[in-house]
Amino acid sequence: MAFVAALLIIGGAVFLLVSCVGLLRLPDFYTRAHAVGKAETLGSMLILIGLAVYNGAALSSLKLLLILVIIAVTNPTATHALTRAAMRSGLKVWRVKGKQTNHDLAG
Amino acid sequence: MSAFFLGLTVFIALLFAASLYRIVVGPSVFDRAIGAGLIGTNAILVLVLIGFLYDRIDMFVDLALAYGMLNFIGIVALAKYFERKQGEA
């Protein structure tokens, strides 16, 4: 059982690392929100599942799963709220120089 | 398994440093807010791991639960506030 837990936790840690690399390396706010909103949620959920598996059948395992549900609901919602606020307050979208995108065509 | 949890806690603490860089450098205020949100979500995991390290998981899991909800409310309030702020300017 500890082996399964360790496997899940290491997988989650890899996703956390990916989200942090995305936050550091990607070019603008929207792409960074993309990295954080998805990879971070999945990584935290995997780590919490692994910890619940390691903890076994107990009340605290149920609470760990409750934390998992809260993260799964709130983390994408918070990212979406921030991104919508940025879009409405007119933050510029990053683009390759001299290349027209669908966003330009929609005007 | 205790050394494994300790190593994982140190690893997540290193990720704190990475998002702290984004909070300091980040060109827009939204970059800073999303870096703060990332630190908040990782802090939940660190709280749970500290519970496993000290063998007091039944207490620390409640702290992590409360921290998760407060973190969400904080980020949504930041988003609401800065949206209005830049709309007026």
Structural overview:
The complex is a heterodimer of chains A (107) and B (89). By secondary structure, chain A is mainly alpha-helical. Chain A is built from four helices and no strands. Chain A has one domain (2-91). The radius of gyration of chain A is 18 Å and the shape is elongated. By secondary structure, chain B is mostly helical. Chain B has one domain (2-88): Helix Hairpins (Orthogonal Bundle). Chain B is built from three helices and no strands. Chain B is flat and about 45 Å long. Chain B starts with a helix and ends with a helix. Classes of the chains: A mainly alpha (107), B mainly alpha (89). The A-B interface holds A 2, 6, 9, 13, 16-17, 19-21, 23-24, 29, 32-33, 36, 40, 44, 47-48, 51, 54-55, 59-60, 63-64, 66-67, 70-71, 74-75, 77-79, 81-86, 88-91 and B 1, 4, 8, 11-12, 15, 18-19, 21-22, 28, 30-31, 33-35, 37-38, 41-42, 44-45, 48-49, 52, 57-58, 61-62, 64-65, 68-69, 71-72, 75-76, 78-80, 82-83, 85-87.
